[in-house]
Amino acid sequence: MNASQNGHDGVEPNVGPTPEGEPEFHPYHHPAAGWGAAKSVTRVLVGEKALVDGPRAIMRMNHERTGFDCPGCAWPDDTKGLHLDICENGIKHVTWEMTGKRVGPEFFAAHSVSELFEWSDFDLEDQGRLTGPMVYDPESDHYVPISWRDAFELVGRTLRELDDPNQASFYTSGRLGNEATFLYQLMARELGTNNLPDCSNMCHEASGRALTASLGTGKGTADLKDWETTDALFIMGVNAASNAPRMLTALAEAYDRGAQIVHINPLVEAAATRTIVPHDFTDMALFKSTRTSTLNLQVRIGGDMALLRGMSKAVLEQAKTDPKALDQEFIDRHTAYFDDYRAVCEATPWDEIERQSGIDRDGILKAAQVYREADRSIMSWCLGVSQHEHGVDTVREIVNLLLLRGNLGREGAGPSPVRGHSNVQGNRTCGIDHRPGEEFLNRLGEVCGIDPPREHGMDTVATIQAMRRGDVKVFVGMGGNFALAAPDTPYTYAALRTCDLTVQVSTKLNRSHLVHGRRALILPCLGRTEKDHQRGGIQSTSVEDSMSMVHLSIGMKRPASKHLLSEPAIIAGMARAALPDSATPWEWYIEDYDRIRDTMAQTLDGFEDCNRRVRLPLGFRIKQPARELVFLTPSGQAEFSTAPLPDVVPAPGTLALGTMRSHDQWNTTIYSDNDRYRGIKNLRTLVFMNEDDMRERGVCEFDPVDIVATAKDGTHRRLDGYLAIPYDIPRGCAAGYMPEMNVLCAIGDYSLQSDQPLMKHVKVTIEAHA
Question: Which end of the chain has fewer surrounding CB within 10 Å, N or C?
Answer without folding.
Answer: C
